[in-house]
From TrEMBL:
Classification lineage: Bacteria, Pseudomonadati, Pseudomonadota, Gammaproteobacteria, Oceanospirillales
Descriptive protein name: Glutathione-independent formaldehyde dehydrogenase
Superkingdom of the source species: Bacteria
Length: 57
């Protein structure tokens, strides 16, 4: 609990990139089958499906 506030502040003020810390990849809706296949294969990665291309990468 003692780390929650400093971590939140670091994220809010751009001192850390949370997506890189948790290994996130933004994919389009067309790439979703590839993402699910990777997860089924045991990939240590998180996928964010962005069907409208509105998430900044």
């Amino acid at each position: 609990m003692k780390y929650h506030r400093p971590l939140m502040q670091a994220i809010l003020f751009g001192k850390t990139r949370i997506a890189e810390a948790v290994n996130v990849e933004v994919i389009s809706l067309d790439e979703a089958p590839r993402g699910y296949a990777a997860l089924d294969g045991g990939a240590a990665k998180k996928f964010v499906i962005d069907p409208h291309g509105s998430v900044a990468t």
